[in-house]
């Protein structure tokens, strides 16, 4: 996926990140993993500190130790690792200002358990494919929180446009399921060396300015309460 320097800057400049001077963000993702864009550039461009994890894989116990030893304030966890730490090392979350998670279905029960143990911590649920640099929408969850159904995907980031469309690219009203298309800030140029695949997934945006494109995600979503996106499934399932 061909992401530009401008895409990275747009991501780091989003007003939703709760990162600033005095914060310490753990970088533990591989460089090829899109969340590394957050772990490196968001703190560096906002006056915070990047704490580089030691080489090699890190399990829940090792991450818990790093948070305690290195004074980590912000941490990203995959949905699976978030669930494990919520079950086995929930006290760790009380040391964090914010934990980010996503990339798969995040357990609402795990979020409830974390916020019950760490009421001053924010759990930020992220959604978005690499084709939009990292994420297109996000949903911060804070205490008090009680799990009831799945977590919403949230609202768009700054300068990002999201559309819920039918097969004829017509916008759908709240509560009606359609395919998610993403446009605006962070949209990648396409797939390097794969013009056919790029043309299939990066299509003309009929709602933007001439020449604008949007990314066809293949995800089925709907607009829910308070203008938040809700995940339903995949169009190819």
CATH class category of the largest domain: Alpha Beta
Structural class: alpha/beta
Helix coverage percent of residues?
Answer: 10-25%
Largest sheet: 5 strands, mixed
Which strand order spans the largest sheet, edge to edge or round the barrel? 3-4-5-6-7
- Give the total of beta strands: 12
Helix-strand pattern, N to C? Answer: HEHEHEHEHEEEEEHEEE
Write down the overall geometry: globular
- What do the pLDDT scores average to? 95
Strand content: 25-35%
Number of helices: 6
Q: For the record, what is the CATH homologous superfamily label of the largest domain?
A: ANL, N-terminal domain
Characterize this entry briefly.
The chain is an alpha/beta fold and 237 residues long. Helix content is 24%, strand content 27%. The chain has a 5-stranded mixed beta sheet. Strands 8, 9, 10, 11 and 12 form a 5-stranded antiparallel beta sheet that branches. A two-stranded parallel ribbon has the order 1-2.
In words, what does this structure look like?
This protein folds into two domains: 5-155, ANL, N-terminal domain (Rossmann fold); 157-234, Luciferase, domain 3 (Roll), CATH 2.30.38.10. It has six helices and twelve strands. The relative contact order is 0.13. Helix 2 links the parallel strand 1 and strand 2 (49-52). The radius of gyration is 18 Å and the shape is globular. The chain has a five-stranded mixed beta sheet. It is an alpha/beta fold. This is Non-ribosomal peptide synthetase. It holds the Pfam family AMP-binding. It comes from Streptomyces violaceorubidus. Residues 1-191 form the AMP-dependent synthetase/ligase domain. Keywords: Phosphopantetheine, Phosphoprotein.
């Amino acid at each position: 996926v061909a992401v530009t320097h401008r895409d990275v800057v747009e991501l780091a400049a989003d007003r939703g990140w709760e990162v600033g001077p005095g914060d310490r963000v753990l970088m533990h993702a591989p460089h090829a993993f899109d969340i590394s864009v957050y772990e490196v550039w968001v703190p560096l461009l906002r006056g915070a500190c990047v704490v580089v994890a030691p080489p090699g894989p890190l399990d829940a116990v090792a991450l818990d130790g790093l948070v305690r030893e290195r004074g980590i304030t912000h941490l990203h966890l995959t949905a699976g690792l978030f669930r494990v730490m919520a079950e086995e090392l929930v006290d760790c979350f009380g040391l964090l200002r914010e934990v980010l998670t996503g990339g798969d279905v995040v357990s609402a029960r795990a979020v409830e358990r974390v916020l019950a143990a760490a009421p001053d911590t924010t759990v930020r649920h992220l959604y978005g494919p690499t084709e939009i640099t990292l994420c297109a929408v996000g949903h911060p969850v804070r205490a008090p929180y009680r799990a009831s159904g799945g977590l919403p995907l949230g609202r768009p980031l700054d300068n990002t446009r999201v559309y819920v469309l039918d097969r004829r690219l017509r916008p759908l009203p709240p509560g009606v399921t359609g395919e998610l298309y993403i446009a605006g800030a962070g949209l990648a140029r396409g797939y390097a060396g794969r013009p056919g695949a790029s043309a299939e997934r990066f299509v003309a945006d009929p709602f933007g300015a001439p020449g604008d494109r949007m990314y066809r995600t293949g995800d089925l979503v709907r607009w829910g309460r308070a203008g938040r996106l809700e995940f339903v499934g995949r169009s190819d399932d």
